[in-house]
Amino acid sequence: MNEYLIQLHRDDCLWAELTVAGARLSQVRGELARRFPAAEGFNLRVQQRQEQRRIVECGPEGIRLLGVQYRYLELGEA
């Protein structure tokens, strides 16, 4: 399932970030836009999360996942 990062900005200053499942993106995006209107200086930036790299360790016990690094693709402003 796709995940998205929604950033809420006011006057070009980041106020909040929210990770949202793809199934709820439209609903959450609409709710945020309604509660934080552009007329008051707010805007939303939406990015799709994509896995870029897995960090693993190989030891006597086998291979272990240490972390995952993501990159984000800009979808545009709401």
Task: Give a structural overview.
- A hairpin with a 2-residue loop joins strand 3 (42-59) and strand 4.
- The protein has a four-stranded antiparallel beta sheet.
- The longest helix has 11 residues, at 25-35.
- The protein has one helix and four strands.
- The protein has one domain.
- By secondary structure, it is mainly β.
Number of strands: 4
Q: How would a textbook summarize the main sheet?
A: 4 strands, antiparallel
How many separate structural domains?
1
User: Strand portion, in percent?
Assistant: over 45%
Based on secondary structure, the structural category is mainly beta
Order of helices and strands: EEHEE
Q: Helix count?
A: 1
Mean pLDDT, rounded to whole units? Answer: 90
The rounded distance between the terminal residues' Cα atoms is: 21 Å
> How is the largest sheet built, in terms of strand order?
2-1-3-4
**Principal-axes shape call:** elongated
Name the poorly predicted regions. none
Helix content: 10-25%
Question: Any idea what the radius of gyration is?
Answer: 17 Å
Task: Describe this protein with a few key phrases.
single chain, 78 residues, mainly beta, four-stranded antiparallel sheet, 1 helix, 4 strands, elongated
Summarize this, please?
The protein is mostly beta strands and about 80 residues long. It has one helix at about 25-35, and strands at about 5-10, 15-20, 40-60, 60-75. The protein has one domain.
What is this structure's SSE topology?
Layout: E1 3-10, E2 13-21, H1 25-35, E3 42-59, E4 62-77
Antiparallel strand pairs: 1-2, 1-3, 3-4
